What does this fold into?
Amino acid sequence: MELHWGPSGLCGVDEAGRGPLAGPVVAAAVMLDPARPIDGLRDSKKLSAAARERLAEEIRTRSAAWCVAEASVDEIDRLNILHATMLAMQRAVAGLQRPPDDVWVDGNRCPDWAWRSQAVVKGDDKVAAIAAASILAKTSRDQFMCALHEQYPAYGFSRHMGYGTAAHLAALRAYGACPQHRRSFAPVKLVLDQATLF
It folds into this structure.
């Protein structure tokens, strides 16, 4: 399916990492250059890891502007995941090398910001700039989680990227939470609450 390129000056925004039990939530903002098209853009979840990495490099070198930003685990626990996601998106758009004319955000809501914007449900499967943002956000967050795996190998972060798999939950019960676990998320909170009972 051919992705929509949108108007000139369009910035696409997407995030990665709302659901995991550990690590930051990461957002990316991308303004594509119509004179330098990138083949193969699509929702990052529908691409292999190798394809995502290859496309991420193309996006960084061929886009008119791009920025990746995050909200930390502390911010997620303090603000809640929705507000932390909106904060990461604000930081990504604010960090662009040039201001966008329009901002299209994947999902059903936009942050409260000054840019003219609209939410696009399943935008990462419809709009080229949002697909590019989804790829940058996903690859950037995966790199963070793989680095975190080197620091805390017992949790298997490089395999599940912080999502609540059976292996991750078993490691949480066995070892407790590390500093990058989201204390406000129910499975982590449950493990910490149980630990205080003994």
About this structure: Residues 10-150 form a domain with the Nucleotidyltransferase; domain 5 fold (CATH 3.30.420.10). Residues 128-151 form the longest helix (24 residues). The two ends are 56 Å apart (CA to CA). The mean pLDDT is 94.
